[in-house]
# Entry
Amino acid sequence: MSVNVRGRLLALFLSAGATACGEVGPTAEITAKRTASRPSSPVLPGATPRERFEVPTMRAPEQGSDDLIGMDYDLPEGWKVLARTSDRLVNLLPAGDPEAACYLSFLGGSAGGLEANVNRWRTQFGAAPLSVDEVAALPRVTLLGRQGTLVEAAGSFTGMGEAPRAGFQMLGLVVSEPGGSLFLKFTGPSAVVEREREHFLAFASSLAVAAAHGAESPSGDGHEHAEGDGHDHGEAAAPAATPAAPVEQVNGLAWKTPVGWTVQPPRMMREVSFTLSDGAECYVTRLLADAGGLRANLDRWSDQVGRGRLSDEAFAALEEIPVLGQRVPFLDLAGVFKGMDGVERAGQGLLGVAVIRARDSLFVKLTGPEAVVRAERENFRAFVSSLEEGP
# Structure
């Protein structure tokens, strides 16, 4: 199964409903945790019934892009991103150790059930199987909005088709539900796994299904910005908004497209996408419920341009603008963008607003070279103010 199809199935699985109710095992405390947005199902504006309900057309993964599956995460320091495979939606090299591996996989259905998968992993280390009650008592850690079971094992590790490797250790998370199963597995020499334990847990908590990070082309005027201020550009710096095209509507969401913005074909996890000049883009995403909350999402965006999380003072000072009947903070940042390929690109800009609600939340984000983003600032404000929702 291709990465693209598997990613779409994952999105559908995650959007099927919240974690099942009931008692869970003890909760593992995680430091440096970032609340991840809960995803919606893929929305394909303008698609035909065939496009909506049949397997989507395949396309080759783009170099350095994670947009095909919409995965977002905080890459631990010293870890490297590896090429994805047909069964690894995220594939990492922990701490630069060639013997270590960390990857996320998804399978449709229960994949044999929780107990079977926990004990399958334990068997790889020569550990005795756990009973149903013992599995139920294992710690739980949130993984992509679900309660994952934390599995640990140590000993001589025998991977698929590999010779046993002594002195190895594993940290893993399993989510097994009728609609699908998630597996996040970290293996390596015991010293490496122990040293990187908190990095792994923080990475697990940061995983989210989201739209792509946007344009990454280096550009801009080299203007310096103070860290964490969250609202870097004055009103006079941007030109007036250009006249908008007639109102367009998809899936109950209506808007006026600014001149110079081009609507793109349907893309997974996006209500609508636009391309602008010089590789910049703007897109709208809808996620379930509050998607982790306003502050967490704005902090995530700020992290993406290397600015760190907003200080309380910077968050309180953000300008508020009207969007869909609410007054919401307007994030206007520039800095060094770090993509999933680990390459840092200076001179990037980001504009964003988040409308947080109980039933669902809407996110609008514009990214690209700083000079382009600044020039499109008033167009962005006009676009988000034009958004309307119908029945």
Remarks:
- The chain has ten helices and 20 strands.
- Residues 3-15 form the longest helix (13 residues).
- The longest strand covers residues 165-177.
